[in-house]
Amino acid sequence: MSDIIEQLEWRYATKKFDRNKKLPQDKIDTLKQAFNLTATSFGLQTLSLIVVSNEDLKSALVPYSYNQKQVADASQLLVICIQDNISDLDVVDYYNNIKTTRNTPDEILKPYRNDLIKMIQKMTIEEQQQWSLNQAYIALGNLMTVCAIEEIDSCPMEGFIPEKYDDILNLKEKGLKSVLLLPVGYRAEDDMFADFKKVRKPLDETIIELN
Ligand SMILES: Cc1cc2nc3c(=O)[nH]c(=O)nc-3n(C[C@H](O)[C@H](O)[C@H](O)COP(=O)(O)O)c2cc1C
């Protein structure tokens, strides 16, 4: 079995974290970089990652996470957020970044920039948010795989009340909405879920090969 499959077998949705074991800073930095390196549609990156290390803040979020204690016990709580809307300026900033990073002449970038502005202007706010949300799931998957490779335990979570998180973390004033959680850290020795066998369909039910 390849190393990556072994690591994907090793990972599981951690229900009980060891609250005394903290991630070293280099692991947190790796997760930040991995989030930022996630591919996004057009490369626009309408996502942000909130890294919550503060113990009081993590504890305050438990009641708004259907009492799932992973949120408080994890070393860090990662909150994936989408922008509440996408403006022309987001697109302009993005193309300015390409211009300076790659030294691309403006005449080449201009038509692409204008087309993307038009495409985004045509979307309703709800469509913009759904578009960003699709990409938030890619970031979640990317982070989970990086966690598995780095032997960081994690638990993907949709089970929380986003409006409450947005209030507590002051996300509205940042123009953000919380959409997904990933508590990260180290499993508690007595997390019984660590020893459960993985439940998956047989490969021949999920893979269709057309030769
Ligand atoms: C998008 C998403 C949301 C999830 N939400 C929760 C959650 O709120 N709480 C939880 O304990 N597990 C949650 N899970 C974990 C799944 O139940 C778990 O990944 C699945 O049963 C497969 O088990 P494994 O990850 O241990 O292999 C979620 C998983 C995903 C992908």
UniProtKB/TrEMBL annotation:
Cofactors: FMN
Gene Ontology molecular-function annotations: oxidoreductase activity
Keyword terms of this UniProt record: Flavoprotein, FMN, NADP, Oxidoreductase
PANTHER family documented for this protein: NAD(P)H NITROREDUCTASE YDGI-RELATED, NITROREDUCTASE
Cross-referenced InterPro entries: NfsB-like, Nitroreductase, Nitroreductase-like
Domain of life: Bacteria
Keyword ATP-binding: no
Protein name as it appears in the record: NAD(P)H-dependent oxidoreductase
Protein family (similarity comment): Belongs to the nitroreductase family.
Start and end residues of each Nitroreductase domain: 9-186
